[in-house]
Amino acid sequence: MAAIARAAFGVQHLAKGVSRLSNVVLAKGRGSYVWTTEGRKLLDFTSGIGVVNLGHCHPRVTQAAQSQLATLVHGQVAIAMHEPMLSLIEHLKPVMPDPSLDTFFFWNSGAEAVEAALKLARAATGRQNIVVMQGSYHGRTIGTMSMTRSKTIYGAGFGPFMPGVFTSPFPYCTQCAVANASDGKLGFSNCCMDPLHELKVLLKQQSAAADTAAIIIEPVLGEGGYVVPPDGFLSEVRKLCDEHGILLILDEVQSGFGRTGKYFAAEHWRVRPDIMVMAKGIANGLPLSGIVSRKELMDRQTPGSMGGTYAGNAVACAAGVACAQVMREERVLENVEERYVWISLVSTGIALKGLGSFRRSEQLFDALEELKASPTAGHLIKDVRGLGLMIGLEFNSPSFPTVTPVDDVPKGIAARVQAKCLENNLLTLTTSIYETIRFIPPLTVSEEEMKLGCDIFTRAVEDVAREG
Ligand SMILES: Cc1ncc(COP(=O)(O)O)c(C=O)c1O
User: Fold this and answer.
1) Within the chain, which residue ranges are assigned CATH 3.40.640.10?
2) Preceding amide of 401 cis, omega within 30
3) Where along the chain do the CATH 3.90.1150.10 domains lie?
4) Which residue, by CA, sits nearest to atom 16 of ligand 1?
5) Looking at ligand 1, which atom is closest to the CA of residue 112?
6) Residues 407-445 pLDDT 10s
7) Residues lining ligand 1, CB < 6 A?
8) Which residues pair with 248 in a beta bridge?
9) pLDDT (tens digit, 9 = 90+) per residue, 302-355?
């Protein structure tokens, strides 16, 4: 009863503009689980939207933050440097996707860091315009809202927006009308690359290259639906940027720090950003974000033009150092991605897959693919996609916006499945304007926890299929 009253108090006094998956009140978190004040134990496949990548309250991160709290909480960046920030740079530099990325600026939230990237791009190029991708999400400040194209809800009623933002399509083959009409000839593994063509046209018809400071891209669309670009897309964008002196900004706020099985998603395609944006997983829950670029670009900014009262807070930086240490020393990435050893019997020409251990990414993919192939629920599922533990499952839908409506699929299926998962103590998130569930468990999730989550999800989909 007291818990219900407490939830009602929150509903009464918290801003209505924040939407919530549930009105439970969280009391504690540990590893892959959170507990409510009523004692309910929920398996968390959201990681607080891709933040607690090392699980809730990782003991080494907690210990580092506690110890820093007792040492120096606030070392203001305009007054002095502080040791945790310098140590954080030492820990981050070796895991950057390119050695040219050697100069850092830390802030608090992802949106702030995107704003910092935009400021740097404008200051360094002397150009104003920015190109964003259809389906992108960059934050909720006026600047980042102006650059967000995942859902109109984020901007509706809040205009006017920042001028100088131009939108180019992201290669989303699952919802591409041309690919869907091609009888399987075109698609993710054989993309027509029309979005690249459109980007080139944009630079001819809308924003002259000489006026374009940067193209900003999430290497894997987050809020836009966990969409992985086809091979070749990002490297072609890189080439286009080089041709025109445009900077490439990669927003790795959600895809970064191990989420896709590599430290940063850019590594999957060996693409070098000029500026990279980081947040979320870099401090496992403490508010910390940052941008990194090459010194030559960063040095084009006037001293005093960057900063912020809490920029790179010492406690958050100390947590960030512990995160980087845990990632390396506890070999977290190996829990995500398969690590098979291929034994090639050269003489016979046979390659055997062996000595491998079964990893969580593959475990989750296998469970979702099995569901997609099942006679009971397979017809509901359009696509399973992702990298590492950034995996999306897109349902079919009977109506717009999908380009291929399917009649016998319940309306609002993703939200219904999500609600059933919650009833059964599994937290999941939907994403995008399409009927999509995203899976973002902690990167430290165990095999048993993954199995439990997959079982709950499978049952939820089968229940919705049965109920119609
Ligand atoms: C790719 C991306 N960029 C920027 C942001 C904004 O981050 P924050 O909510 O910390 O401001 C998010 C948040 O989800 C994100 O996913």
Assistant:
1) 59-329
2) yes
3) 17-50+357-467
4) 254
5) 11
6) 999 999 999 999 999 999 999 999 999 999 999 999 999
7) 49, 109-111, 114, 137-139, 218, 222-223, 251, 253-254, 279
8) 215
9) 999 999 999 999 999 999 999 999 999 999 999 998 544 444 444 444 545 444
